[in-house]
Design goal:
The chain is built from 3 helices and no strands. It has about 120 residues and is mostly helical.
Length: about 120
């Protein structure tokens, strides 16, 4: 009687198999790395937001200063704090009149009255 041997198949090792897992990992790393820099919430988007924040903060500071100036002017116009000299000066400028004892200096170009000051 002959000894019985079990038949086994020998496979040739694939060259792609060992590289498959590292290649997929590398592709995933590249994908997430790209989106960490270029994505909606990435590094460049953060830089744009910081730049916009600085611009808006500067604009806010200017608007707050303008608001304070306007509040001061409004406070001068309240009945309890009316200054007669200021009212007279405004009326003279608006109506373009002067008293008989005022000294008037005529210039070539008359400055336009600015209500914002």
């Amino acid at each position: 009687m002959r000894p019985q041997f079990m038949a086994t198949r020998q496979r040739k090792q694939s060259k792609i198999g060992p590289l498959l897992v590292p290649a997929v990992c590398l592709l995933l790393l590249a994908y997430f790395g790209y989106h960490a820099v270029e994505g909606h919430y990435g590094h460049r988007a953060l830089q744009k937001l910081k730049s916009r924040e600085a611009d808006l903060s500067e604009q806010l500071a200017l608007l707050k200063a303008e608001r304070r100036a306007l509040d001061r002017r409004v406070a001068l116009m309240r009945p309890e704090s009316l200054d007669p000299d200021m009212i007279e000066e405004r009326a003279r400028r608006t109506l373009n009149v002067a008293r008989a004892d005022d000294v008037v200096i005529l210039r070539d170009v008359m400055p336009k009255f600015d209500m914002t000051r």
